[in-house]
From TrEMBL, chains A, B, C, D, E:
Protein name as catalogued: Magnesium transport protein CorA
SUPFAM superfamilies: CorA soluble domain-like, Magnesium transport protein CorA, transmembrane region
InterPro entries: CorA_cytoplasmic_dom (IPR045861), CorA_TM1_TM2 (IPR045863), Mg/Co-transport_prot_CorA (IPR004488), MgTranspt_CorA/ZnTranspt_ZntB (IPR002523)
PANTHER family in the cross-refs: CORA FAMILY METAL ION TRANSPORTER (EUROFUNG)
CDD domains membership: TmCorA-like_1
Function of the protein: Mediates influx of magnesium ions.
UniProt entry tagged with the keyword Transport: yes
Similarity comment text for this entry: Belongs to the CorA metal ion transporter (MIT) (TC 1.A.35) family.
Transmembrane segments: 328-348, 360-380
Compartments in which it is found: Cell membrane; Membrane
Gene Ontology CC terms, in alphabetical order: plasma membrane
Keywords: Cell membrane, Ion transport, Magnesium, Membrane, Transmembrane, Transmembrane helix, Transport
Amino acid sequence: MAKKKKNTLQSHLTDAVSSIGKLVSAPLHFVRPPKPTVARKIASSPGIEHAKGVDVPPEDGSIPIQCIDFGKSGCEKTDFRNVTDLIAHPRPEWGGFRWINIEGLHPFIINELRKTYEFHTLAAEDVLHTPQRPKLELYDTHTLIIVDMVRLKNEALTSEQVSIIVIGDTLITFQETPGDVWDPIRTRLQNPDARFRRYPLWYLAYALIDAIVDNIYPILERYGDVLNDLEEQAMEDPKPSIQQHIYLIKRELYALRRSFWPVRELTSKLTFDETSPVEKKVRVFMRDVHDHSLQIIELIESSREMCNSLQDFYISVVSNRMNEVMKALTIMASLFMPITFFAGIYGMNFEHIPELGWQYSYPVFWGLCITTTIGLLWYFKREGWIGKK
Amino acid sequence: MAKKKKNTLQSHLTDAVSSIGKLVSAPLHFVRPPKPTVARKIASSPGIEHAKGVDVPPEDGSIPIQCIDFGKSGCEKTDFRNVTDLIAHPRPEWGGFRWINIEGLHPFIINELRKTYEFHTLAAEDVLHTPQRPKLELYDTHTLIIVDMVRLKNEALTSEQVSIIVIGDTLITFQETPGDVWDPIRTRLQNPDARFRRYPLWYLAYALIDAIVDNIYPILERYGDVLNDLEEQAMEDPKPSIQQHIYLIKRELYALRRSFWPVRELTSKLTFDETSPVEKKVRVFMRDVHDHSLQIIELIESSREMCNSLQDFYISVVSNRMNEVMKALTIMASLFMPITFFAGIYGMNFEHIPELGWQYSYPVFWGLCITTTIGLLWYFKREGWIGKK
Amino acid sequence: MAKKKKNTLQSHLTDAVSSIGKLVSAPLHFVRPPKPTVARKIASSPGIEHAKGVDVPPEDGSIPIQCIDFGKSGCEKTDFRNVTDLIAHPRPEWGGFRWINIEGLHPFIINELRKTYEFHTLAAEDVLHTPQRPKLELYDTHTLIIVDMVRLKNEALTSEQVSIIVIGDTLITFQETPGDVWDPIRTRLQNPDARFRRYPLWYLAYALIDAIVDNIYPILERYGDVLNDLEEQAMEDPKPSIQQHIYLIKRELYALRRSFWPVRELTSKLTFDETSPVEKKVRVFMRDVHDHSLQIIELIESSREMCNSLQDFYISVVSNRMNEVMKALTIMASLFMPITFFAGIYGMNFEHIPELGWQYSYPVFWGLCITTTIGLLWYFKREGWIGKK
Amino acid sequence: MAKKKKNTLQSHLTDAVSSIGKLVSAPLHFVRPPKPTVARKIASSPGIEHAKGVDVPPEDGSIPIQCIDFGKSGCEKTDFRNVTDLIAHPRPEWGGFRWINIEGLHPFIINELRKTYEFHTLAAEDVLHTPQRPKLELYDTHTLIIVDMVRLKNEALTSEQVSIIVIGDTLITFQETPGDVWDPIRTRLQNPDARFRRYPLWYLAYALIDAIVDNIYPILERYGDVLNDLEEQAMEDPKPSIQQHIYLIKRELYALRRSFWPVRELTSKLTFDETSPVEKKVRVFMRDVHDHSLQIIELIESSREMCNSLQDFYISVVSNRMNEVMKALTIMASLFMPITFFAGIYGMNFEHIPELGWQYSYPVFWGLCITTTIGLLWYFKREGWIGKK
Amino acid sequence: MAKKKKNTLQSHLTDAVSSIGKLVSAPLHFVRPPKPTVARKIASSPGIEHAKGVDVPPEDGSIPIQCIDFGKSGCEKTDFRNVTDLIAHPRPEWGGFRWINIEGLHPFIINELRKTYEFHTLAAEDVLHTPQRPKLELYDTHTLIIVDMVRLKNEALTSEQVSIIVIGDTLITFQETPGDVWDPIRTRLQNPDARFRRYPLWYLAYALIDAIVDNIYPILERYGDVLNDLEEQAMEDPKPSIQQHIYLIKRELYALRRSFWPVRELTSKLTFDETSPVEKKVRVFMRDVHDHSLQIIELIESSREMCNSLQDFYISVVSNRMNEVMKALTIMASLFMPITFFAGIYGMNFEHIPELGWQYSYPVFWGLCITTTIGLLWYFKREGWIGKK
């Protein structure tokens, strides 16, 4: 039922947005992949060993598994239909690094890999139980990095958790759903001159995070365009729908900020901390990602600031309009009430109203009305109610 | 009398909430257990020795006492009706750890335990005098941890103080009222393979805190649902009751935040501080709790942010509506005032009004009225008062 | 004259408060003791030696002076009428500590004590020139602590500066006016088993500060009650007086916060700083005061937050009401303006109005009026202006 | 032209203020000395050597120069008409310290002194190019302190930059205009017992800064009085002029805060920093200034907070009033519109209106009018629009 | 299309501004140079080697290249039409430093220089891919500084990224477009006595940054003038256009702040950090820039604060005016509705209205009207609706 409601809201918002023909670019909406069915029970044993379904392997091929071995001498890419084949797959004789990419979360797969590579059961649990807060966890022999991969897919923002485990010569990535932003990296890996082949494995970790971070820029540009449209609209023709847009954008920017704020810490730790496992040679690249995450957070903050200013501006525009409307009403009422009263006077049926029989009463009456009106208009003019905007 | 007032408010709020049929899930209310009758007097001697009632044992069985001895070789659970029996209860020969759980606060019991286990009199006082701020106190030989256990009970949020004292091989927990979130832990203790049996005693402390922290997630999801409902309502059909809801939710989120903010510090100290008494093996689990407390605080903050945005949005909706209403009034008045005046003119009883006798006066009059009306409508249209929303 | 104004305001506020019968508990007001007549001149020589009146002893008995000697072997309390007697008073043979309490500020007394106990002239000046910011000043041989003692006296909050000087075996306290919160301490000092007798002198300093800090709790509870009342009123029957109350409470909470914020630092320094003069044995007690000051600040903050939320809520209630009033007016005007115009039409005196002579004109007219009214009502209903609240 | 505008604003503000007879004390306005004619060119060479006019000595006597030599054995004050005489002036045989005070900024004088005392060219430039941010600059052989001296002069706040250079046995002060708050210090220097004579030179620096800081207290008291007046007015008789006052006070408090915030850092560095050039004996005095600057900032913050609360309060008062006015209008219109319509009905000239000929029509009509009115009044009463405030 | 929109907005804003004759100085607008055509592809290889166009040299002379060799013995300035000539250009025999200034960004040029001077490929990429966040990057052998150069050009604010690379004896600067604020520096370099000739190369870096920072002052003064104008207008004659101005100024100040905030960190690191590559002799100058950047940020903050206060003030002015308008309407309606009703009464055509035939009815009627009016006016006066402002 909760899902149904959400859809209603979603469609409602889409309608709200599409109804504004003028906006060149509409705000984007976050779409989270459906919650995994394997939720952790409160006060249950920590670690993946006790997760529901840990003993039942998933259907063959239901979760794409890819393994890329690369090194100075070559690069081999293999796809698997199940994790057992992957684990059995031998390393090439020429050594090098191995990147295993799992495009789906299943307790059985994670646990098998955990047993093979001996990473911590809590790391495995963090991979499985999405959403986690983006973070960096240093274990004695391995490192866990969790970030959010935000992508534009069919005009909707999808956000999924990506877990990266660096353990010896192997780097394992887990995604929630198939599809990612790493295809250019896969291509570059084929290139014998690529730094991947010559640099330590952390260079691959850098490249993966960098791709995720850089992918935010076009999304932020999109928000920038929407805000520019809104600004223009607010200046030229402020409509109530503006406030709804601002509300939606603020909410999404806040979600984006919440998702990116910890990335800043994470890259900072990887770059500057003494305990960082990243090699000095690679740290200079990691610093670059750190700079970008700083810049992204500043861009988000500045968009939020702009939202707030626009909202203040819109509210004062509404106040001003109300003022104008009230002035119009007051002027109208002030002009017609007195003269309507005068007309009422001479519509009375008293037998003894001397003016009624007087010959020039009618033109004099008109004169009185016109004089009153002009007097009031002059007064309003002097008070600044008329003629200034 | 203060109690009576509270109930009135409570019932009032419940009514307010129940009157809104559309909200699938209503906001929750905090219920604190009644204040203990043993309040500390100002400037009285610190420590529990001088607390009122410290010499009078409570009625047998009025406060449930449970003792679980566990270790590599076994696990024994015993319930007691009074503290004297508990203290007399021997440890099993196979050694291991002891977890004593007291489900009620009584100065006599606390003092007896203090004398037996020799913990600090200020620690005992903190256990007794609720509510304390959640905190971690390191004494030379023992550690006191105070957290709030927030639970959903019969559609109300109950919050009670839980004090955990770790002293040598013994862990003592004090609750304010019977009932807790630890039943799964009691079950897991029976399992010979459970980490509890192999890990240091601090692993139990971790599990207890973890259960308390994890229990907040479903509560926050509930708030999330309420906020989604409110958002939908605000977009589709904003009613004044929304503001009351937002106010109540904000107040409760603030209370929740105040209760959780210090937990973050506490788990951080236990995890990262040099002086932390937690063993390295257990710290990695404690770090997990720390992550969860960070995530919970971010979720609370983001809900509060959403409340604020919704409120701003609602206020600007109200302003817009007022604008619409005012426009309607002004248009109405502007249309009818002039023509009512015209009608008034020719209702006058002057003897000499030439138009009265003229044959086409009446249709001309109607023409004048219609022209005026159309002119004004055109003006309003041009000014954007009609036809745009 | 400034004083007269203040009184006017005071009485005004009292009236404002007393006029609201429903509020069970009224907000409290701060009363500061009258400024000392010995104000320091700008750019004058620092230190107490040059203060005005430093050479003239105060009238005997005008300022109560009390000296308590206590130690393992006994406790002697003596009252003096002037400072010379105090200084001449010999220490008991059994040694121990001496607590001197001066209930009034006079340059002569402070200077005499300064000369006897050799504390710094700037410390003496800080004692004399109230109000100082609460602070901790470490001198080589002695320590100065300044805090605000806030008390409820005859339904008014009085705030006075308390200065505590710890110098060797002697602790000197200076108050601005007679009366304090320390009577239970004086009683406990008589008890041969009291910790005072066995612990270092700093334990007395702890007890004095603790009494001052703990005394804030009932005051905060009072504010809590007032806020609960206001909340209830705002929900059930929001009156304009609410905003005045909120304003007053916010102002007072801010004053309370300003007075307590530095206490937090002060106790933190005494507890955790390496340079703290407090003995380890006593620090654990000082930590307790520190916890309480943290909790008090959180309670104040949370009350302020509640004030702000209430204010937002009240403002949106006012907006909504205005909306209701405007709707009522608009509906009223829209219903009656058209039909009044119709009536005006047939009140015209044109000779040629065909309808006038028609037999069914009158009932048809009524039909027209009723149709118009029903049509408009239906329109308002559809627009949601009628029937929903 | 910019100057003319400023004057207009100034006079406008003065008018605004003077028009409010009730305010006992009016807000104060900042007056800065006119900008020096020697503005630094962008990207020009740093240092004073290239400043315009550095080669042309000012007219003799146009800038007052004073030199005070003081020490254990004596104190000599000499006034000079030009800087050459000052430099040629020999030190007394009994040694001691020299305080040179220049009451005006001229590149020639500053440069001559720089050449004599060999202070850094950037220090000289900071002295010349006002306004600088208050700051402390430690050079190898000397120290530059820049603070703002705010004074009340003829009911206006004047703010001028004061630069203090401590270099060996000499202390040089530069002011922008003649006149300062240091006369009591000059007097105290004559006193053979004064600490100046016995303490290091930094004691003089302390005394000069202390005089400047202490001089803010009466100004803040003045603002406190204005705010109390405004508060009283807002409670009793809120007028629109209140908002203008609040705006002006907020602006000035912000300026004051901006001018004092860096002083806090400055005194903190002089007191607590390891690198501070101040002798330990004098640091305890400097700490006193630091405390005062903290207290001043808290007082400013609390005044600003009060301004904001007052503004919120005033706005909600305005809203309430608008509500009252709207209610009055709505009640008026609701009462008269229906009965005016009834009267219109029977003013129609239809030939066939049966009621017209009926004998009791008129009293029945009145009965109808009165019944309608009473009914509406009862309705308004029930809705709470009448009788409650 | 996005560009077209921007222009529309731009012209719209210009119109808005120019329509206000009274404002002496109009707010300024940011103009960014058009985005470079060589945008970095997401997840592409980092570094400049793979940038599009890196192999194609730009047209000769299309990008101005200047090289200045300077040292104790001389200063030689040479302009080049392409980067190959520049690289081939020999250093003068008398040694010294070399400043290369490139007034345009082209991957070929940057890459050639990178290969020659061996700076890091990421530094080269940061130079190329504008806009970067202002930052300081320390590499092992060289330093990269990125700042924004904001200039007033034809009444518009242009902002372009300036990258400074200090590498051994060479300093390279990259600008986005031709034209800068460094002409005075070029002139000063010719002066044999200039510090440039005697000081380390970092002195040149200081001078370049200093020129950029100092150039903000006149821009801020311009904003100060606009704000003073707005303030004056708000006090004397508040028009709705004020809010639009405030919105625009706030947005631009925020952009300026965002551009300057990191400069503060950057100069702080260069001045105070242990790892700073700047020589001690030059650091004292760098500290000066740091002070200026602090002052600039405070000025920006204070302008923003003033904007916010002005906005609050304007909104309360609008509220007050609305109040005035509403009062006028209510008074008008209250005066005329009752007497119009009375006139309506005696316009009824009932046959039996006794008053109609009574001789003094008409004057009595007028008396009634006047009495009612005076009574209402007296009531309004008493309520304070008339006569007070």
